[in-house]
């Protein structure tokens, strides 16, 4: 392994490591704009130049591979001057519209100017006039004055999606990014371009002019919209008076996870976040004669536990039926299994998942729920056999619909409603289903709770809440634990499950494969 | 005039037809070469100290020997883009004697183990491209190209590819991109084309004039070649003399001929008996020389020693009536126009300088403008992805350094 010295720090790195990466390992950040770890070095921005002892010129750190004994300086006067000079060139023609630029606050050019620039502008010439509003895709606006020609967008579309919608046109100072006539960026990964753009040249119509990046809380989560389990960041704010738009979530961004989604997420995962703020079930309610009557959770648990207790006493728990879906977490499915299957001997448990759609061959899978692998590992059969539910009379039907109430067949419920004594719907979203059940109880979607999901490759991924639960929403695992305690069922067991960690600990004993390795 | 090699037969009518070329002993060198071992040819070229005629002056034999001996397709790209302002020598070779180039291509390809060669020719050279196509067809008909050439078992095809008018495509890696059908953007080096070139395969890229020398070296030997020129820089060069000179044109002279002799003895001196103000010795990107510097021998090392370069051997003569600001304007306009736009310093630096110069020309020059030009040019130099940045910065820096007073005098504000 070659040994190199960077800014006086000596370290050993793997053969073939570039200076930029080696510096990163030593905790030294070398500024760069065109370089992105997902692509081969481009070497065009010239910001990452460093001094190598013995070399006549400054060398690119993004593409130069370390050699044993190499001595690199990233902070010398020569390097600093070269950085300033690149920033000066870029800023010469860059518009000063940061106050209205969506990238402000998370713009690399801004950050680097703060860190390595801070010079007064010496540019006294007339700036180039360029198009500032070019629609290059469904959600994408290109501002050519802000573009710094790093070509990350072009390379993303060539190397990752392999769709190649963007190209560089013209030459020299007139170089510009563009689409080919009549062929806009149209693929399921287009939203990554706005994120990938180090400046505000490509902005996202969905986010444009809605808020400022520094108002946002960015919290990690996992995308629940297919079984890939991409790492995402959910960015929200409670809303300042001047920017109140009645929404918490302003955007979903990708988070790096080399094992799952590298640096990208698909447009479905990026733009579907509105379900987190729209048509949410606010409070627990009883539905009586087409009206929702608010009830407290305490009252709900009294009603439900009484019903279950009644069935228990009459040895009629076989009259209980459960509808699940695979958007529930491993912990929740584990609790369902313990509580209903093992303790209450409920045999009628079916899954009502949305039908498979088309995968796109990149990240998006055909399965539109995040945890089918987890459910299978827990021994569930993922069958949506609604006819089977009718084999015997149902006194209590518990429907866990998560964020997917559309996956429950409305017609079945319409036909059977009168035959079932009590129908309880746990969901986070309002739907026509609400009027066919007796209780509608608000649950927390993945974004608002803690737990783990097992993705399509069997990878168990833990996540924590990225948002506060909406209204009086409860995570299903809390509902299940509380219900078990209220009945009570095996209090010794359920009584100790006060946290996801506690549930995971007891799961570990029973189903080892469901716990993620740290 | 001393011995002419490449241009020996240029005065002959219809030399571009294979019959005439064969009468003059054409394709003899190729026939001879194909009986040698490839390594022997490379060795001979190395000994001949044949340096690249395109601009960088890299030893051709050495370049060939960098090609790895691997079982992969290898390619030869003849750089006939001839875009350096002031350069008009390759067109003479190709239009007068296309078969000489083809013969050189056969020998080079055989020496390196290449079966497919490309001639990347400047788009504007339409007639020459046609002439090349015709010559290739003639050679193929005679069996000098195609399969089993001279019964040696060696196969070779030659393809002419016309460029679309970008200066940058004369830069070897941009040329490769363009040849692959992509936008002509230079590639990051390493890897160098000798190992990863056209279509990712090992590739030799040589200038037309370089290749045209090869048949003569094979025929007459390395010693003869270095005897013509210098031990470390052999042969003759086709000097293109232009600008304010009495007899502009292409002159084939031994490497090392003093610049003064080329301008005054062959070029007939400065036009209309005016005085010399400066000379650009190797194409527009070569730093300008002052009258007192023109005793320099025209070989790669000597010209480099005084801070300029032999480049493509294109000599541009500037007389005392030509304003240096006008020279600066043309240089900056050209490079800002031809910058491919890929890397930051070249794209934005050349344009910024060009904007300042345009302003000065418009009578709006301000104090400090010349310093600014110098500062910006030095921020381009040595910092760009390809040599074009240096090609732009060096002549600008030299003009500013050597003619500062005259330029400062143009600042009216």
Architecture blueprint of SSEs:
The complex is a heterodimer of chains A (518) and B (413).
Chain A: E1 3-6, E2 9-12, H1 19-25, E3 49-52, E4 59-60, E5 71-73, H2 77-92, H3 108-117, E6 134-137, E7 140-142, H4 152-159, E8 166-169, E9 176-179, H5 192-196, E10 202-204, E11 217-222, E12 231-236, E13 249-254, H6 267-271, E14 285-288, E15 291-294, H7 297-313, E16 320-324, H8 330-343, E17 348-351, H9 372-377, H10 386-389, E18 396-402, H11 410-416, E19 422-427, E20 439-442, E21 451-454, E22 460-463, H12 476-486, H13 491-494, H14 500-510
Parallel strand pairs in A: 1-5, 16-17, 16-18, 18-19, 19-20
Antiparallel strand pairs in A: 1-2, 3-4, 3-5, 6-7, 7-10, 8-9, 11-12, 12-13, 14-15, 14-20, 21-22
Helix pairs in contact in A: 2-3, 7-12, 8-12
Chain B: H1 18-23, H2 28-33, H3 38-47, H4 60-65, E1 75-80, H5 90-96, H6 98-112, E2 116-121, H7 126-141, E3 146-149, E4 154-162, H8 172-179, E5 203-207, H9 208-220, H10 222-228, E6 236-243, E7 249-254, H11 259-266, E8 276-280, H12 300-305, E9 314-319, H13 324-338, H14 344-364, H15 369-380, H16 388-402, H17 404-408
Parallel strand pairs in B: 1-2, 1-5, 2-4, 6-9
Antiparallel strand pairs in B: 3-4, 6-7, 8-9
Helix pairs in contact in B: 3-6, 5-6, 6-9, 9-10, 13-14, 13-16, 14-15, 15-16
